[in-house]
Amino acid sequence: MKEISSAEFENEVLSGGKVVVDFYSTECPPCEALAPKFDSLAGLYGSEIKFVKIFRQQNRELADRLGVKSSPTLLFFDKGQETGERLAGGIRRSDIIRELDHLLPADRVQEIKSQIHPFVSEYDVIILGGGPGGLTAGLYLCQAKINTVIVDVALPGGHVSLTHEVSNYPGFIDPQAGYMLSHNMSEQTKMCGTTFKVAVDVTKVDLNKLEVEIDAFETIRAKKIILATGTTPNLTGAAGEKELKGKGISYCATCDAKYYNDKEVIVIGGGNSAVEESEFISRFASKVTIIHQFDAFTANKTAQAKLMANPKIHPIFSHEPRSFRKEGDKMVAEVEDLKTKQVKTFSADGIFIFIGMKPNLELLREKPVLDQWGYIKTDDEMRTSLPNVYAVGDVISKKYRQITTAVADGTIAAISIAKELD
Question: Could you tell me the CATH number of the domain that includes residue 99?
Fold first, then answer.
């Protein structure tokens, strides 16, 4: 692998051959997560494909000319022409392999993959999930001199990293950008010595054997596992929703309602969470339009009565969203009248979606005992029903799901494990 500058780009990349280019930056957690994957794949594919790195901060003109807007970004070239899909952000090893394979004949790909040898790594504790609960557990375990690894399919931070600002986390007088709070938590845990394996493909989880397989070739074994996999908001499926998540579409009123003081907001949903959160949002917003697919709310009657008496809240029944888009500073929702099939347009300053959450348990072959909503049951030391398996954060059965409660869960689990392993 070779590091090049803008002056060398034409000769090293555009002069021909098969080349993959990594535009990276310093003080860039996604770049740090990518580096070992890029290095190992250079060892596998390097005889057929040239691997080069370009320091984006010192080669801005070239990056701008190529339309590289974030770090890291991988570009793939064949015979001087860019090909395949650009990869950016939390880049997975499997995605890089897919693009590299497209550059080579199938028989050569098979030869290269035959050189990949599975291996096993050993730790005291595996933390599956790098949100606030997992990061806190990692910090406490590290400080207790317990060999710990955090494994996450994304980058560390969980939902917090997508939150605009956090103003209710103790210790900060000024509101903190969600991504910075996540970054600081992650860096603190990393600097202590916890190992991070993030933006990976978790290909198997065996809670009986206390094993996690990542990227289909590394098996991680431990004495204890902490499940910190969090939750995923249910999506409407409407066009534009995924693209505007965190950019005008929010799933957390406690996190983001305060930023809509004297502004207009649209809420999608009609169950308990939608109705109760709409009432909370109305403390800040001047108008809340709540759009629900049924003829009446499905929330409890007390919450409904309180909402219907609120002059700021305007319910629209029998409508469903079909698309979301941004026009200037405004968010626009196109919704369909389910009775007349007419499509209507609503504009507001922000959109909140509350159609339920689901715990992230798809990776688990063996599941601990769950509550009636599918969340993991734990005892007061965060133990699950499975031996040596703990759970923390939003994935567990509890009343409140906040950053502070996840941090508390992680603290309790780590102290409990540290005492058992002492």
Answer: 3.40.30.10
